[in-house]
Design a protein that fits this description.
globular, alpha+beta, 7 strands, about 35% helix, about 160 residues, Heat Shock Protein 90, 5 helices
């Protein structure tokens, strides 16, 4: 059951970033959070939104090598808010991109085993975002990194 209400996406993202502080420090990652000076509200279930942000940041941290960079951007366009996570990680092969949001799909089985996880994180992200009337998307270049994004409706 979804319980949507107005939620400050900036506050939610900062809370999630605090959760991952130790992992970010341990890998010496540079994490940048870019958002407009005036924050904005989205219409979402706060707990489910948190799960989306946790899964996306967790993946970015897992697949970005030490001393890498992660950029999180929030921007508003018309009635939607776009939240993107761009990393300097290993990237995803072109042929795997259409499948990354499928349940249990793993791009690199050996690497995924080493990193842990079930292969459900992105499928959960997609389900939650779409149940809120939003969309998910991904762009990637091997050896350069990936951008995962989600959209939510603004209040």
């Amino acid at each position: 059951i979804i319980h949507p209400k107005p939620v400050c996406i900036i506050r939610s993202m900062r809370s999630v970033m605090n959760i991952f502080g130790p992992q970010i420090s341990e890998k010496k990652l540079h994490v940048e959070f870019i958002y407009p000076p005036r924050g904005f509200l989205i219409f979402a279930d706060e707990n489910l939104l948190g799960q989306v942000l946790i899964n996306l940041l967790d993946n970015a941290i897992k697949y970005t090598p030490g001393n890498g960079k992660i950029v999180i951007r929030c921007r508003k366009q018309d009635t939607r808010v776009f939240i993107t996570f761009t990393d300097t990680g290993v990237g995803i092969p072109h042929e795997s991109i259409p499948r990354v949001f499928e349940r249990f799909y793993r791009v690199d089985k050996a690497r995924s085993r080493d990193q842990g996880g079930t292969g459900l994180g992105l499928a959960i992200v997609k389900h939650i975002v779409e149940s809120h009337g939003g969309d998910v998307f991904v762009e990637s270049n091997i050896g350069k990194g990936s951008t995962f994004g989600v959209t939510f409706l603004t209040v």
